[in-house]
Amino acid sequence: MIRFAELYDAIDASTGTQSKVAALTAYFQSAPAADSAWAVAFLTGRRPKRMVRAPDLRVWAAQAADIPDWLFEESYSQTGDLAEAISLLIPEAQSHSTRTLADWVEHTLLPLKSLDVPHQRDVLLQSWAELSGTSRFVFNKLLTGAFRVGVSDGLVVRALAAASGIEADVIAHRLMGQWEPSGTWFESLLSTETSDADWSQPYPFFLAYALDAQPASLGARELWQVEWKWDGIRAQVIHRKGRIFLWSRGEDLLAGRFPEVEAAVSFLPDGTVLDGELLAWRDGKPLPFTALQRRLNRKTVGKKLLADVPVHLVAYDCLEVGGRDVRSETLNVRRSYLESIVTALPTGAPVSVSPLLTEASWDDIAAARNASRAQEAEGLMLKRRDSAYGVGRRTGDWYKWKVAPLTVDAVLVYAQAGHGRRAGLFTDYTFAVWDGDALVPFAKAYSGLTDAEIREVDRFVRANTREKFGPVRTVVPELVFELAFEGIQESTRHKSGIAVRFPRMLRWRKDKPASEADSLETVRSLLRAQRDGA
């Protein structure tokens, strides 16, 4: 555990990519295989779920720190992070544990879930007495299911490649899909053998960069394939050895969740892998993302939901044909494979090829982009016709050109303290618009302000609080902010009757009084314009 804690400190203290990769590489070259396996799991986001109830943790930590519960709660509210509060308040251990990361995870952390509450308490009090410093903090982060560190999956892959000599693309592919951390698994991850690939395993997804210039800067129009950027769930469908696998970009196996799509892709030739987007779909066109949300996180789907929210796969790339990896071939060639395979599916199958925009000029493409919302799309995808299907995000080949966000001027009405780095500051806000003479809440946002602006808003909240409801404060409705969001839909779950997608703060409208903020009718007019494609 000490060695992994030192790695955590090294990554946390570094702002440079090279130094992070160097620290990771040194760890993977020297740590035991089982420790490295768990490190890879945690660093790539496969952290365990919370093992113990948070209220129990707070009570036991106060006991271990020998302080009253109220003092622990006050300290916790100041740090905003339960793992940090526990680490700081409990006295330092007299000696440092030499147990490995794998030992702590496999013999202490994971078994907690199956213990009764008294035994959980005994194990944790003993663990806190053995650990100190960053080791205790990391253990607590894993315990609470909140472990995060400033390193991307790509940097982990680079470090593993540097430590082993295996190509980064091979490492990235082996990390896809489902696997269990162990010393044996880690050794196979870095093996020079090429026959160990799991036949149910997806390929790493190729991602696009945001286009921050006019498309004409990319060169001739005919060099680029243009299609809609769909607002659904990115997925790969795999048909290998007579089995069907449906994977999300988040590496979740979606078995049984979209049975109509799985039934259709069972007609694909064996040894086929397609990349595409899962969309709620009716009458030959996509439904709003809010409709698809009704199908998400449902491991079983009833007949009524299947009928109310049918799902369709819009396929836009072909990665494997006849068991042969074709990712290195050009997009033009892969597109021909895709069209040939999908058009051979039975009539009425809920799978189609993503249509291409045929406009001849970049100006016409720009005009089509402006109508994206009428297509239930977020904008356009621009892909070089001669591009290979890469790993992760690479500049120059694929770009996403999203439509400009919708904006509304709204009034801050509620505030709540943040967590982690923002603990102790009011950073999570609820905004309202006018409905006649009343302010109606319609969106929550917590991103978009500078640190200086956050501190200024925090001072306002503290000085202008009207009421307190637990961690939430009602504030005097004076501050106006311009909010941006990607889409808007009707909603019966919200008092305002609408729901917005990905709201964030664009700017603080210090030039505008609350009385001049937008109305609910203005928001509804945006909804109507979105439907009409305006």
Summarize the structure.
With 534 residues, the chain is an alpha+beta fold. It folds into 3 domains: 2-144, DNA ligase i, domain 1 (Orthogonal Bundle), CATH 1.10.3260; 206-402, DNA ligase/mRNA capping enzyme (D-amino Acid Aminotransferase, Chain A, domain 1, 2-Layer Sandwich), CATH 3.30.470.30; 406-532, Nucleic acid-binding proteins (OB fold (Dihydrolipoamide Acetyltransferase, E2P)).
Tell me what you see in this structure:
- With 534 residues, this protein is of the alpha+beta class.
- It has three domains: 2-144, DNA ligase, ATP-dependent, N-terminal domain (DNA ligase i, domain 1, Orthogonal Bundle), CATH 1.10.3260; 206-402, D-amino Acid Aminotransferase, Chain A, domain 1 (2-Layer Sandwich); 406-532, OB fold (Dihydrolipoamide Acetyltransferase, E2P) (Beta Barrel).
- It is 36% helix and 24% strand.
- It has 19 helices and 22 strands.
- Strands 4, 5, 6, 7, 8, 9 and 10 form a seven-stranded mixed sheet that branches. Strands 14, 15, 16, 17, 18, 19 and 22 form a seven-stranded antiparallel sheet that branches. Strands 2-13-11-3 form a four-stranded mixed sheet, with no helix packed on it.
- A hairpin with a 2-residue loop joins strand 4 and strand 5 (243-248).
- Helix 4 crosses helix 5 (69-79).
- 34% of the residues are buried.
- The mean pLDDT is 88.
